[in-house]
Predict the structure.
Amino acid sequence: MALTAGTSSGAAGPSAGVDPAGGPAATDLLESPVRRTIVDALANLPTGVDPATGAVVPHPGLRAQDLAERLGLHVTTVRFHLDQLVTAGLLRSHFERRKEAGRPRKLYAIEQGSLTTVTSDQSYRMLSELLVETLSSGADEPAGSPEDAGVRWGRRHVLNGHAGLVGQPPARSPGQWLGKIGQMVDLLREWGYSPEVSTTNAGRTVRVALHDCPFLPLAKDNTAVVCGIHRGLMRGVMEALGEESTEVGLTPFVAPGMCIAALTTGSTFEQPASPNHPPRQGDHS
């Protein structure tokens, strides 16, 4: 499961938009890919079972050194981000006494209830922007459908936050097409989705399983609206990446909490060059 699944339970954590210490809000902190990766790693630690009661026992957490080794980061960098996440109420730290001699270990774990709060805040902030897009897109462009809003939102956020990806020519091979899909998947992960990718049709069609939809509560009652937004987001991103001929289909709720998107390119792939071979007997130069 990914960060946005909101797997923590228990008492509600601090408000996602307010840091009691006066520092950055939790949602702002999670705009950093490094901090999201740290929180994701701690949120997905395996749980245990109390042999006496059968109750689920949360993982005690990891040391900063453990996280640094897992994520390939310097331990000083990890400690810096851990301190901010603890201050914002997303993580908690505690000391674990060891059976052998030595100083207690300082462990970091998810603060119960914190991820659900942050996820909700992030999701509704994104949804608010998309609804504004749906109702009014500006003086030069009439209001459109939820899919139109998703297209505009996705295209604009690529332009604003990832301008280096814009201006690419259309894919001319399956490898180039899949590279564009990879760029879209990275953006979906930034926006709270947990996508998984597979291919069919000799690489021309890509199947994207969308887990942990940020709009899941709304999607259950307003499937057409949310599916339209999802199609638009992916189409807008692909258009910004130079793939304006992309066709996007979406099948909702193929499993609890999961939808399947199918993206097919309309680009014409170049035929691979034939390998050189020595002339056969009877060939003439």
